[in-house]
Amino acid sequence: MANLPRDCAVELPIRLKNRVIAPESQDDLPLQLAALCQSNVTVHKLTVEAALTGNRELLIAALSMDPLTGAVLTLPEIRSLTAELLSHNSEWLPPGWFESRGDYIDIGPHIHVRPASVPGENLLEVVRRYDREKRKATRTAARQNLS
Question: What is the pTM of this model?
Answer without folding.
Answer: 0.57
